[in-house]
Amino acid sequence: MVSPAIALAFLPFLLTLVIRYRYYFVLFYRAVLVRFIQDCLSGLSREERAFQYVLTHVTPGDPDSILEAFDHWCRKVEYISNIGPKKGRLLDRLILENAPLIVLELGTHCGYGAVRIARSLPLGARLYTVEMDERNAAVAEKVIRLAGFDDDTVELIIGPSDQVIPKLREDFGIERLDFVFMDHWKRCYLPDLQLLEGSGLLGAGSVILADNVIFPGAPHFLRYVKRSGLYEYRIHRATLEYIPGIRDGMAELTYIGAK
Fold first, then answer.
1. Catalytic residues
2. Could you name the CATH architecture of 85-255?
């Protein structure tokens, strides 16, 4: 048994750890513990619970009200790693500035990013969004349609990104991607970027925006981008969605091709 004197000696160290990493404790509590408890109590997935909330707090056909409802739920009820409103404004700006006609989103999750992208697309543009988890994809489908976007604007593709990307040209007739938003598994960022390069779907001026490159982080992806010579790039510093005390960032790439 630890003596009181030893316990007291460690107390300042423990307090320092708690204070220094308090936001990470908050993230663990909200993203792991609360989710586990609610999963057991409700019998629903976190994404399904979020959709139930959204469904009763939005105006159908109004993308803004859907995003606002998600943001409120993620701040006040349960944590979901959507891009969120602060980093979302960068995504909005890049979509509006580049006016892409063909957009690929990797990592639909519950549809937040797809709704955010689709509402800013120019007339006649199309978003292809990829989600590997069938249960999440079912939620995303309902969210996207609730926002008022049909199959001609947003097409949801279910499957692993490394299997979908090589078939985009053959199965969907895509010759070039004007904009790519990466928000799926961070370990997939680099191999999927290389798949996009190898498939010939990136052309001069194609823009890639990758979320969470600082936390949880995508170091191999960033190292490749910096060394490849194929991109002009910029890291936008930010904080983790809905947890302002954790530093994060987004990588904005513009494909220039081999020199």
1. 183, 186, 211-212, 241
2. 3-Layer(aba) Sandwich (3.40)
